[in-house]
TrEMBL record:
Keywords (A to Z) from UniProt: Cell outer membrane, Ion transport, Membrane, Porin, Signal, Transmembrane, Transmembrane beta strand, Transport
Gene Ontology CC annotations of this record: cell outer membrane; pore complex
Assembly mode: Homotrimer.
Protein's organism: Parasutterella excrementihominis YIT 11859
Location of the protein in the cell: Cell outer membrane
Name the record gives this protein: Gram-negative porin
GO molecular-function term, one example from the UniProt record: porin activity
BP GO annotations: monoatomic ion transport
Entry-linked Pfam families: Porin_4
Length: 404
């Protein structure tokens, strides 16, 4: 770029742009002395600006849902049926030798009313806020990041982990939620992640998140309450893909912050046959304190199929509560998404949950989207799901999603 500026400069001088018959030779030389450094500076600044790439990205998603919970019909315009509505900044800087510095800043919102999503807690960037470096030795990043445990769902769910997914009723929140009673296993603050370079199709993820709880005196505890430790491995070979995750979490429960711990095993496998792509996924939770945390396992089977220029997705799941009696549920969902363009999709589908007498799962679109019609934040820890206890729930929906 610098050479191009010099060529342009010399050509301009030759063509007389810096000299008119009425201008003296000395003035021409002074003009050149002032213009040449300015152009050189502009050239270098332009080169530096090209080295750092910053993009604005996001999506706006709206849908109409008609929900029936045991004969209670409700209709609403909601946000985030296909993906969450969100806006963010991401950027990279090339350091040379195949090494890059990168950052992600991502904020979710509810497009139906412009408000924050549940659990935002005043965060400027509720979805992601992290910085890292990647190169031939892998990727190291710091900040608010998705857990590998959650990525197993996100990467493999056949219904795009959104409205219509048979898994989404079990995601958040409550004592028997696959992302933790508070939804804290979707992503975590104060996290450090190292991803090894992919070798022979195998990628390893190492993840630690520091709870950084404060005690009654307002200073940080040193007892590791809230810490998350997560390892995952993903293997890809042609059309075959498999991923497994183990997560350990120290939990601070209740006003006295009684310590307990939970462990999660998560596993998913898929094979793309071209005409369709079936997926099997299995999650198991172990809880040390069953008075406040339920043990369970959940399994999902589904497939996604190219159809009529779009994609048809279908899945079915079963949730087995191993702590409470008659607290099991099963669910199924299907959705069709059709692209109007590279950025805009229309979608429609139906989803249903069938609860045992002590189960109260509801239909939700997924993380960072509108919660179900009867959601009450005051019942989050002890009474979540009581509005739907023993009820069968169905929902039909139609929406539009635009990504930018």
């Amino acid at each position: 770029m610098v050479i191009a500026v010099f060529v342009k400069l010399l050509t301009s001088w030759r063509d007389g742009l810096f000299y008119d018959g009425g201008i003296s030779q000395s003035l021409k030389e002074k003009t050149m002395k002032k213009t040449l450094p300015a152009l050189i500076c502009a050239a270098f600044l332009g080169t530096a600006a090209q080295a750092a790439q910053v993009d604005i990205f996001g999506a706006v998603d709206m849908y109409v849902g008609v929900n029936n919970a045991g004969g209670e019909w409700r209709t609403g315009l909601q946000s985030g049926g296909l993906t969450a509505s969100h806006i963010g900044l991401k950027g990279t800087e090339d350091l040379g030798g195949g090494t890059q510095v990168f950052f992600n800043l991502d904020q979710a919102f509810l497009a139906d009313n412009g408000s924050k999503t549940f659990g935002n807690e005043g965060k400027a960037f509720s979805r992601e806020a992290n910085v890292g470096i990647r190169g031939k030795y892998g990727q190291l990043s710091f900040g608010r990041q998705y857990t590998p445990h959650f990525l197993v769902f996100a990467m493999y769910d056949p219904t795009e982990l959104s409205l219509g997914s048979s898994d989404s009723p079990y995601f958040f929140p409550g004592p028997a939620a696959v992302t933790g009673w508070d939804g804290g296993l979707v992503r975590a603050d104060n996290s450090i992640q190292y991803v090894l370079p992919t070798s022979f199709g195998l990628t390893n993820f190492f993840y630690v998140a520091l709870g950084e709880h404060q005690n009654a005196a307002g200073t940080q505890d040193s007892n590791k309450l809230g810490n998350i430790y997560n390892y995952a491995a993903k293997y890809d070979n042609g059309n075959f893909s498999i991923m497994g995750s183990y997560l350990y979490r120290n939990v601070a429960m209740g006003p006295t912050k009684d310590a307990s711990h939970n462990q999660y095993l998560n596993f998913a496998v898929s094979y793309d046959f071209g005409v369709t792509k079936p997926v099997f996924q299995f999650t198991k939770k172990f809880a040390s304190n069953e008075a406040v945390q339920d043990k369970f396992w959940m399994a999902q089977l589904g497939t996604s199929t190219p159809l009529w220029g779009g994609k048809w997705m279908v899945s079915a799941s079963y949730m087995k509560n191993q702590t409470k009696d008659d607290a099991n549920a099963w669910s199924l969902g299907t959705k069709y998404a059709y692209p109007l363009s590279k950025r805009t999709r229309l979608y429609a589908g139906v989803e249903a949950v069938f609860n045992d007498s002590n189960a109260g799962y509801a239909i939700e679109a997924g993380p960072d989207s509108s919660l179900h019609f009867n959601f009450d934040a005051n019942k989050l820890i002890t009474g979540y799901g009581t509005d739907y206890l023993g009820k069968n729930v169905q929902q039909i929906f139609v929406g539009i999603n635009h990504q930018f």
